[in-house]
Amino acid sequence: MTGADADVLSEVVRAAARPLAGGAADYDALLERIGDARFVLLGEASHGTEEFYRARAEITERLIREKGFAAVAVEADWPDAYRVNRYVRGEGEDEDGRAALGGFARFPTWMWRNTAVLDFVERLKGHNLSTADEAARAGFYGIDLYSLRGSVEAVLDYLDRVDPEAAGRARQRYSCFDYFGDPQAYGYAAAFGVEEPCEGAVVEQLIELRRRAPDYANRDGSVARDEFFAAFQNARLVKNAEEYYRSMFRGRAESWNRRDRHMAETLEALAAHLESQGRVAKVVVWAHNSHLGDARHTEMGEGGELNVGQLVRERHGRDAVLVGFTTHAGTVTAADDWGQPARRIRVRPALEGSYELLFHRTGLGRFYLDLGAAGRASDLLRRPRLERAIGVIYRPETERQSHYFQARLAEQFDVVFHFDETRAVTPLEPGSGWRDGEPPETYPSGF
Predict the structure, then answer these.
(1) To which H or E segment does residue 170 belong?
(2) Is the backbone peptide bond immediately before 197 cis, with ω within 30 degrees of 0?
(3) What is 65-109 written as a DSSP string?
(4) How far apart are CA 325 and CA 178, in angstroms?
(5) Per-residue three-class SS string for 263-332
(6) I want to staple 239 with a disulfide (CB 3.0 to 4.6 A). Which of 94, 202, 249, 333 is the partner?
């Protein structure tokens, strides 16, 4: 596309976009677009951008207050998020939101232990405690599957309370993992035949829990049902995580698909649990764009990968609304590599041929665009362009290879928010590397 063509497209998008003024009405159009949909998937183009977290929080609060949404499901592990769930519902032993977020102790801690999430958690608790009907309080749940050991401990803790004899059987089954220092070491040993896989043991444990459901879940009303549901989700997570860690050594598509299928399955299980309590199962999902935009319309899908957005759309159709977020430049909280400390890193301006640069050229600092009702803009945004994705690692020196993929945005999402200049989200414990980590404005040239 020539520069003149790009300028014309930018003008078409500008005409269709709704500028954001920073006021209470910014999300009116989105709530109208959502209507009675039961699943709203709120993405993010990075795991470390303040504006994305704040926007999702504001939208979610309105969905809870105005449309009766019952839960927030986030790209986080079940046991860590369930601790927050207990806090926001006025349960548990944590004295404040900062303590409740303490379960997020593994890399990347800033993804959920940041000031934006803390503010949201405290406001959610305030809303819940002002609601007289405890059953109507909104929950906070995790749908990811990295917490194999944490979920094992949660299952054992539950069984120790309700059925010590069953807890002994569970310990015997889960002891299969005791020989390995971490789940990845287990996955490697099992995938290459160094050790027998724990697959049979974890499936057996899940079957026993399912078989005992009538005894466990009905012993003490709704509290028992909630506790059993949480324990069962942890047991299911262990089973799926065991598969995931073995699949890591068989190729990216297989492990990615196992993870996203687990997230979609957990979302469905959560909706079914809410419905069993007599609630309308309306759920907001917070995860990366790469998980929530329909993979069928991206380079990922062409490579055999599916995702949560695709699976939810296939099952629920118009009852799901997929929302993407983009940015052109600014700063982001990320690490140089897995397990490294968080840094505040300058985001390079978007590349030529990308949606982000196209949106930057509209001259609108912040805007909302309904991709299904934008007329000519919608048609033009169905053509493939580059789209940026920054996870917990950001490598600006290999920007094109590491952080861009081809997508058809108007098919991938239903609506999109663009924030042209964004800021790094603030970790609850910003180390010196984060405080001093922002490169100078002239990065990366040095001039």
Answers:
(1) helix 164-174
(2) no
(3) HHH---EEEEEEEHHHHHHHHHHHTT-SS-SSHHHHGGG--SSSG
(4) 41
(5) HHHHHHHHHHHHHHCCCCCCEEEECCHHHHCCHHHEHHHHCCCCCHHHHHHHHHHHHEEEEEEEEEEEEE
(6) 202
Q: Is 277 exposed, middle or buried (0-12, 13-18, 19+ CB in 10 A)?
A: middle
Nearest residue to 392 (alpha-carbon basis) of 113, 83, 80, 71: 113
Write down the pLDDT at residue 202: 93
- What is the percentage of the chain residues whose pLDDT exceeds 70? 95
| Percent of the chain as helix, strand, coil, to the nearest 5 | 55, 15, 30
Gap between the Cα atoms of 51 and 405, Å rounded:
22
CB proximity list for 39: less than 8 A, separation 6 or greater: 267, 271, 282, 283, 285, 312, 316, 319, 320, 321
Query: What does the mean pLDDT of the chain come to?
Result: 92
**Spatial distance between the Cα atoms of 417 and 17, rounded to a whole number of angstroms:** 9
The phi-psi region of residue 420 (left if phi > 0; otherwise alpha if psi is between -120 and 50; otherwise beta) is alpha
Closest CA to 301 of 407, 414, 144, 415: 407
**Which amino acid does the sequence have at 100?**
A
pTM equals: 0.93
- Take residue 206 and report the two structure tokens written for it: 């899940």
Q: Is the model's pLDDT at 109 over the cut of 70?
A: yes
**Cα separation of 133 and 136, whole Å?**
5
400 burial via Cβ count (<10 Å: 0-12, 13-18, 19+): exposed
Residue range 26-61, pLDDT digits in tens: 999 999 999 999 999 999 999 999 999 999 999 999
Helix (H, G, I), strand (E, B) or coil at 417: strand
